C-alpha cells in the first residue's frame, strides 16, 4: 500500500456539496479495490480537485474514480509525506 | 485565512530527510507572513512536491517558500476541503 495524490481538472464551479457527494461515491466502492480515499481539496475557480488516497496501485485509484463517475488520468505516488 | 495547495516540480530524487529539512525551513520563517505549512507529500520519481498551507494569500505562500530557498510558482487556493 502506498499514498497517492491524484488531480482532477475541469471541475470549475464545484460546490462543497458536490465534493462531498463525489467523495461519498468513492468511499462506497473503494473497498473493492483495496483503496481508501483519505482527503480531498478543491479549487472551484480553476476547477482543480486533489485527492489523497492509500492504495495498492495507481491503477486501482483510477478504477475507483472511474467507476464513481469522475475518472482521472493524473495519479502520482507520494511515498514521502509530512502529515 | 484560506487553505492553499502549492506544487513544486523538478525535485527528482528528493529524500525524506531533504523534504523534512525543506519543511523545517518553512516552519522557521512562516510566522513572518502569517502562513502555516500543515502537510507535504513528495514523489521523488517525478520530482513533484505538494504542500498544504493555511495562509492569508497565495503571495504570502510564495514569499515564505522563496525565502526558505525553494520558490514555487503554482499556488492554488483550495477553499473546499474534506479532511
From TrEMBL, chains A, B:
InterPro entries given in the database record: SCO4226, SCO4226-like
* A Pfam family it matches: SCO4226-like
Which top-rank group of organisms is this from?
Bacteria
Gene3D superfamilies, per the entry: ORF SCO4226, nickel-binding ferredoxin-like monomer (3.30.70.3090)
The molecule here is called: SCO4226 family nickel-binding protein
Amino acid at each position: 500500500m502506498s499514498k497517492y495524490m491524484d488531480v482532477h481538472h475541469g471541475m470549475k464551479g464545484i460546490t462543497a456539496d458536490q465534493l462531498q457527494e463525489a467523495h461519498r461515491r468513492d468511499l462506497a466502492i473503494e473497498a473493492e479495490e483495496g483503496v481508501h480515499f483519505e482527503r480531498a481539496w478543491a479549487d472551484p475557480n480553476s476547477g482543480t480537485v486533489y485527492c489523497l488516497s492509500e492504495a495498492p496501485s495507481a491503477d486501482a485509484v483510477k478504477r475507483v474514480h472511474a467507476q464513481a463517475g469522475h475518472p482521472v488520468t493524473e495519479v502520482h505516488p507520494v511515498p514521502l509525506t509530512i502529515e
